[in-house]
TrEMBL record:
This is N-carbamyl-L-amino acid amidohydrolase. Its cofactor is Zn(2+). Pfam families: M20_dimer, Peptidase_M20. InterPro entries: Amidase_Cbmase, Bact_exopeptidase_dim_dom, Peptidase_M20, Peptidase_M20_dimer. Binds 2 Zn(2+) ions per subunit. Zn(2+) 2 binds at residues 92, 127, 383. NCBIfam families: hydantase, PRK09290.1-5. It comes from the Bacteria. Zn(2+) 1 binds at residues 81, 92, 190. It comes from Idiomarina loihiensis (strain ATCC BAA-735 / DSM 15497 / L2-TR). Residues 211-313 form the Peptidase M20 dimerisation domain. Keywords: Hydrolase, Metal-binding, Zinc.
């Protein structure tokens, strides 16, 4: 049974982790379309070229490399994203791209004969700096010009400007779509980003479906006042509105959510931001997740109602912008079963499970059969500098990816 070169894969992961590394907090900083993000894309293309693989970057910033001509026969595509959240870990996203790279190297050096091309993608802007998963959305052909021109991050930096800073035209992302007939299947290997596999000591997760996600940027606007002279009962304190909403989250989930529901306030900015001034404005993000689109709609409506009532209570103006809405998606039953079978063949323990986090694979389900493979995250940690997966689990996941790709490409 063919296996990947684990030492070579480890070396690639550690080399890529030098790009965007922060020595102060030990986190990765490859936020979408920053200098470090683009440096990582160029590095990946250089590594692929050095191995003799064809490579290119499309108008959305997605990096591709592979073997075979997908214009003549549908390809097996695998990969994940190269960008990270601020202060992220070294495995999230990058592992899936480098695992695909290692699969290609293993296929080439063992002269494996395949009937279909095999390509790897390092998608752009998956972590949602500008909302959504722009790279995989571009490949799936679900982007539109209005969104591309209006998309911005929580600091009001526009996507079009961030791309222009690197010599890219945001509208070129519309030309990045892959026709469904060009693909036979898509596979993504990813760390779980949760504690289930680690706690249950299970090596492989065969993902049956991916949670939907909505993201809001909320503004609660009151009146800035002197912290010493403004009476407590006469304030329009924007922070108190935010605090009240935080206490409402548990009730909203209990009434309108499920055991799969997650609601998170992840980024907060209080203005004017002085210790001696009552906050006149609170700007914050809300991210909601669930496996049901109907439940997500109920959650969004409940958040809206709760914030409206809180704003009236504290004499605030409430506004919000829905940055993105990603529907829940089911993975291919055929490919999920294949992942389970390949794990059994290698004597790896395997669990069929949902994904609470969003992944590129959910957009590939729009155009081809998609399979998502999880490996354990130590203590469930992700999106943090201490994110870690054991190298033996990394090797196991990559071997399953190799087995599935060879099977689909024959």
């Amino acid at each position: 049974m063919l296996s990947i070169n684990a030492d070579r894969l480890k070396k690639s992961v550690l080399e890529l982790s030098k790009i965007g590394y922060n020595e102060t907090d030990h986190g990765m900083y490859r936020w979408g379309f920053t200098d470090a993000d683009m440096e990582a894309r160029r590095w990946m293309m250089e590594q692929a070229k050095a191995e003799g693989f064809k490579t290119f970057m499309d108008g959305a910033g997605n990096v591709f490399f592979g073997i075979g001509d997908y214009s003549k026969k549908p390809a097996i595509l695998t990969g994940s994203h190269l960008d990270t959240v601020p202060a992220g870990g070294i495995f999230d996203g990058a592992l899936g791209v480098l695992a695909g790279f290692e699969v290609l190297r293993s296929i080439k050096e063992n002269d494996v004969k395949l009937a279909h091309p095999v390509w790897v993608v390092g998608t752009a802007e998956e972590e949602g700096r500008f909302g959504g998963m722009m790279g995989s959305q571009a490949i799936a052909g679900v982007l539109n010009p209005d969104w591309l021109m209006s998309a911005h991050d929580a600091d009001n930096v526009y996507l079009k400007d961030a791309m222009a800073a690197h010599g890219m035209d945001v509208m070129d992302a519309l030309d990045a779509a892959w026709p469904p007939e060009r693909l036979k299947a898509f596979y993504e290997l990813h760390i779980e980003q949760g504690p289930v596999l680690f706690q249950k000591e299970i090596t492989i997760g065969a993902v049956e479906g991916i949670s939907g996600v909505f993201k809001w940027i909320v503004h609660l606007k009151g009146k800035a006042d002197h912290a010493g002279t403004a009476p407590m009962n006469m304030r329009s304190d924007a922070f108190m509105g935010l605090a009240d909403f935080a206490h409402e989250i548990e009730r909203i989930i209990a009434e309108d959510g499920t055991d799969k529901t997650r609601i998170t306030v992840g980024k907060v900015d209080l203005k004017p931001g002085s210790p001696h001034t009552v906050p006149g404005e609170a700007v914050f993000t809300i991210v909601g997740r669930d496996m049901s689109n109907d439940v997500m709609k109920e959650l969004a409506d409940s958040c809206n109602k709760a914030l409206s009532a809180i704003a009236r209570k504290h004499r605030l103006k409430f506004e919000y912008e829905q940055v993105s809405w990603l529907n829940p998606q089911a993975c291919s039953e055929k490919l999920t079963k294949q992942i389970e079978e390949k794990a059994k063949a290698r004597n790896y323990s395997c669990l069929k499970m949902p994904s609470g986090a969003g992944h590129d694979a959910q957009f590939f389900t729009e155009i081809t059969e998609s399979g998502l493979i999880f490996i354990p995250s130590v203590n469930g940690v992700s999106h943090a500098p201490d994110e870690w997966s054991h190298w033996h689990d990394v090797e196991a996941g990559c071997n399953i990816l190799l087995d599935c790709i060879i099977n689909s490409a024959q």
